[in-house]
Amino acid sequence: SSDLDLVPLTEAHTQCAEWITETLNAFADTVIVQDFHTRLYDGRGVDGQNLIASFNPKAKKRIVLCAHWDSRPFADHDPDAANTRQPIDGANDGASGVGVLLECARHFHATPLHEGLGVDILFFDLEDYGPHQDDAEQYYDDRVNNWALGSQYWSKYPHVYGYKAYFGILLDMVGGPNPNFPKEYYSQGYAAWVSNKVWRTAFDLGYRPQFSNELGTMISDDHIPMNQIAGIPTIDIIDLQPESINECFPDVWHTLNDNLEHIDKTTLGIVGDVVLHVVYNE
Prior knowledge:
17% strand, alpha/beta, 7 helices
């Protein structure tokens, strides 16, 4: 609810981190809370927490599954100008990916992976704390990425020294009705073989209507540092709506309407089904 938003620097954010960590501890072999300090777009120092759950931590072949767990502090695309400085719930933009991956964690616990394969679930903090759109030009610097701060930090300082993974899958906005998941542009550039593997799995499962075999637009998301800094071929499964009033994102994106009323359990189930099949088929 809006009174329990997960915006960084709030008590709700702290409580959420504790709840996610406790939930992961019930399923994973190892859970790590990676505390870090970084700077926001305006120069303010800020503390963040990446939450990491490992399954079969000794296995050398590893897959990374990730999402961001923070919420946007500004509803800067809300149609009502009075709301644009209010925080959003982030039910789709953030929480949907977290929900799918928590369910994946439950499955990995109930039906263990074969001993040669390990999975690390990463929940990144501070993905969505970029500047308000009205201030974006003031803080623009093409040498600095003011978004995806948690994944930038983890990509430089992974939870295990020298960490490597076979590939990664990022989930972002995977809970809306009538989703369109094209092959995101950067994902194809960095890791086309991973996209092809995931989309073939989706097609085999009958999800061709949701996973369109089209090239999507360029999305700067948590997968960019993972590819560029960590060197892990990582793709982004993200709902892109070309007809949307909000650039290419769902209509509720960065508005107060990004709440549970606009979450579709069927979409969550489809994405989770695809991810689980990809992992268990490795």
